[in-house]
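=== RUN LOG ===
request id: a7f3
mode: sequence -> structure
chains: 1
length: 488
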Amino acid sequence: MSLTPTVRVSLLFFAIALASLAVADIAITTANPWRDLGRFFMGLATPDFFSTDSLGTAILRTVAFAFTGVALGSLSGFILALVYRFRLVRTLCAFIRAIHELFWALIFLQFFGFHPLTGVLAIAIPYAGIFAKVYSEILDEADPEPRRLLPLGTGVISAFLYARIPDCWDQIRTYTAYRLECGLRSSAILGFVGLPTIGFYLESSFSQSHYSEAGALLILFYVLIATMPWWLRPKLLPLYVGAAPFFLGDGLPIVWGNVTRFFTEDIVPSPIRNDEGLSGLAAWFSDLMVNEALPGIWNTVILTQIALVFTGLLALLAFPLISQHFGGPVRRASGNLFLVIARSTPEYILAYILLQLWGPSMLPAVVALALHNGGIIGHLIGRQSSGIKLRADASHGVNRYAFELVPRVYRSFLAFLFYRWEIIMRETAILGILGIATLGFYIDSAIQEIRFDRAMVLILITALLNIGIDALSRYIRRKLALQTMPTC
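=== RESULT ===
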């Protein structure tokens, strides 16, 4: 019996993940991981909401950075979407969205310091590239019929506002709201580089073993995400966006001379600054590639492929938790709670927690990436499977899952999985800041050693790697005729 193309591709990626597992650093190195894990869950079960006055401030700053950064990114992205047909614009957008928000934050920290502008731009710039791509796709898919019905002589701007925007406004609004949820997660992890969002206080609580305080922070964050449909009203959006910049906090004045020096000196390769000629530059680049870039690329790709397959396995196991075809309301409610927590917890925060509990290895990163991305895909597939109508005599239990539903949702599942492949790669690279030897580890080390020239080359390599994975993912989806939604 011949295998279908989707099955062959699935088996190929599964085989690659198995081979990657054989060479990956997968281990638990802490002396008593179960005790530490128990203390963490006890902290979640006994949250201390009154341990410090900073809990409310942490949530407020997290929301303020998210609203300001996403608003600026969506406005910039919409403008770029109008000229997205030009290759130069598409290349620029692909480049800026390929660099993770934390990498942008690390760059801006070098010349803006702990100024609110650092966090706002770290979110706004990559989000502008993402918004530009998705908005342009939405606008391109708008129904052309209203434009043909306009009177002759209608201006370009009027035609755009009255014929194109109304047709796709609901999609734009829905995607922007989804992106705001992503912005809250991005804002939260900016605290791990020193900005006053929830990640800053969470890291402080864990380092001092204040698990009840950490549990309170996480619960407040989950509640913030879960209640977005209630407090994120369209009529209140202008109020939120207008007020957000006033709650970003204060920072030291920006020294614009540092900005000039960063671009004219700091990121210029040291052999060029020291007049060592082409031979010196070649030796410098060779040392960077051999000792940092290639090991970082290797570990990033290995970890990405393992996490990608485990994400898929978890999503396939998780979607019945919320599907209307399995269990009753209580089971679906508990399953939905699990998926909300899984997809609401940023991979970086989850990996940080697991690293404290299990010690440094790729295992915390694999689990964090799989839980977050598997929760997202499991939720989408579960919701899609609920819309499938089964025959009255359809099988039940395992047979219903394996023979009735999985074959019908599998192509959509693969589309979602390959769509998130590049996202998993971005997150894998940034997890290196936590000590896992991916590209982010070498970037963070170079910055700590004030070798910004090496850091910028490694960030560029990270961006090119992400662009390559994105191109390969789009090629596979096109060859397999897979379609997905931009809300994945």
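=== NOTES ===
DSSP finds 22 helices and no strands in the chain.
The mean pLDDT is 87.
=== END ===
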